[in-house]
């Protein structure tokens, strides 16, 4: 019997959408299936608190979407996508009242860092200047690099634990700024390769900024979906796949799912070795997420933070390193590392006139159902006295609720698996191609494949390229 489709992609997150676009552009007949009534995965925007307040459910600030090679090749602006750049990409207040900021300008950022000015420039300038050439190497599976010398220079620093690289810096504020960046990796800062995420995020900020999306993260999902459909692709929403038999006949099937969910749906079609490998895949810490409807902008003590799209809270390098270590060990702290975004300061579509939104989360042990609301609010209040009085509505997600919302976030892990040295390039299993399964007609393209978590679509891009090479 002839296949109904050339390819079916299950899951319409950034990677599933990217894979579907690559396959459709190759001339294939592609069906994209999404379990929810809206597409997007981690790129959804909803009225979680009060009517008229638009909150990003997961991803909120998008340096990697703006900087990733694949999205740049797509005419997404024609489908309503608009990036908004805050005055300052990111700010990091310290207990003594000072603030370290990531500015779009490399030199402006370095100028505030005192004795670390030259060290910061020497660390980041090569990556910023050669971003276009290097991004295709570090946002990819293991391969022969196109820029081996420049990549090697990046790798020498990127492979270090963030705490080790921090020894290059003399100023407390530089070390704190660095810790806030590296902690995006959702693992102890003493782990090998934790410097990579800090360097990439800082360099992306200098290269393209840390923009948000007008109207919310949903606008990127909608633009990708509209472009896919303009190519002739088909999207079926509201069909949660729980068994392989629900999938229409196709020459190949690609899953934008975690290994755990892939096993539940298609495990019977895999070899015992591949099932064993997927069962050994490790998930990391979870997050406790809060969204706020506010009567006014967050009343930061430091005026520098009033122009920042993103704010990292948690204190010094030592404070953040300690809180991440405790969380990794399954413990809790009253001084957590908190990521906060204030999109409504720059995007008036996010809230009714005169009102504002707040977006924040902290890391928690995997599977935690502990309510961290008071802890997060206290952490914000510490740097913005009077913040609690501005709250007129709020919504929370613990790790179980996050996983219920998106089954790929196992235990609340929004990176879909630990991105440490043992899983950075081999996720989800050690194979010639990480996107191939043991079944020649089934592929995986989620954030559980290289280059890992983040809204960049590169996992889907590379998985689709591999499938085309193998099957078509």
UniProtKB/TrEMBL annotation:
<dbReference type="Pfam" id="PF13450">
    <property type="entry name" value="NAD_binding_8"/>
</dbReference>
<protein>
    <submittedName>
        <fullName>FAD dependent oxidoreductase</fullName>
    </submittedName>
</protein>
<dbReference type="InterPro" id="IPR036188">
    <property type="entry name" value="FAD/NAD-bd_sf"/>
</dbReference>
């Amino acid at each position: 019997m002839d296949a109904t489709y050339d390819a079916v992609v299950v899951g319409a997150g950034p990677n599933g959408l990217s894979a579907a676009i690559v396959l459709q552009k190759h001339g294939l007949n592609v069906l994209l299936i999404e379990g929810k009534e809206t597409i997007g995965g981690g790129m959804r925007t909803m009225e979680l608190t009060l009517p008229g307040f638009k909150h990003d459910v997961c991803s909120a600030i998008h340096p990697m979407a703006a900087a990733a090679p694949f999205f740049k090749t797509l005419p997404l602006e024609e489908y309503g996508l608009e990036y908004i750049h805050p005055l300052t990409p990111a700010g990091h207040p310290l207990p003594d009242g000072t603030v370290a900021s990531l500015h779009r300008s490399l030199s402006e950022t370095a100028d505030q860092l005192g004795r670390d000015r030259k060290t910061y420039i020497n660390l980041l300038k090569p990556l910023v200047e050669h971003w276009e050439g290097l991004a295709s190497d570090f946002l990819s599976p293991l391969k022969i690099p196109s820029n081996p010398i420049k990549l090697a220079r990046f790798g020498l620093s990127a492979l270090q634990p963030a705490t080790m690289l921090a020894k290059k810096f003399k100023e407390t504020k530089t070390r704190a700024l660095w810790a806030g960046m590296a902690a995006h990796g959702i693992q102890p800062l003493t782990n090998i390769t934790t410097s990579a995420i800090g360097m990439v995020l800082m360099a992306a900020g200098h290269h393209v900024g840390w923009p948000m999306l007008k109207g919310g993260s949903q606008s990127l999902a909608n633009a990708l979906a509209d472009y896919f459909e303009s190519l002739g692709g088909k999207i079926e929403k509201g069909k949660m796949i729980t068994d392989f038999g629900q999938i229409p006949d196709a020459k190949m099937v690609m899953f934008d799912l975690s290994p755990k969910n892939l096993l539940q749906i298609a495990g019977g079609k895999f070899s015992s070795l591949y099932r064993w490998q997927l069962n050994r895949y490790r998930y990391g810490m979870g997050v406790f997420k809060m969204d706020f409807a506010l009567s006014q902008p967050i009343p930061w003590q430091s005026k520098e933070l009033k122009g920042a799209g993103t704010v990292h809270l948690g204190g010094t390098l030592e404070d953040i390193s300690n809180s991440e270590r405790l969380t990794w060990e399954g413990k809790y702290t009253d001084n957590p590392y908190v990521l906060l975004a204030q999109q409504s300061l720059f995007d008036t579509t996010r809230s009714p006139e005169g009102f504002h939104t707040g977006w924040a989360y902290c890391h928690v042990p995997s599977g935690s159902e502990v309510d961290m609301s008071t802890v997060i609010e206290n952490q914000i209040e510490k740097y913005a006295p009077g913040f609690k009085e501005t709250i007129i509505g709020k919504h929370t997600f613990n790790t179980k609720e996050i996983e219920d919302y998106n089954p790929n976030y196992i235990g609340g892990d929004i990176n879909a698996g630990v991105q440490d040295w043992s899983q950075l390039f081999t996720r989800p299993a050690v194979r010639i191609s990480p996107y191939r399964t043991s079944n020649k007609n089934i592929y995986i393209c989620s954030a559980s494949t290289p280059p890992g978590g983040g809204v960049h679509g590169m996992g889907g891009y590379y998985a689709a390229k591999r499938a085309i090479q193998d099957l078509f």
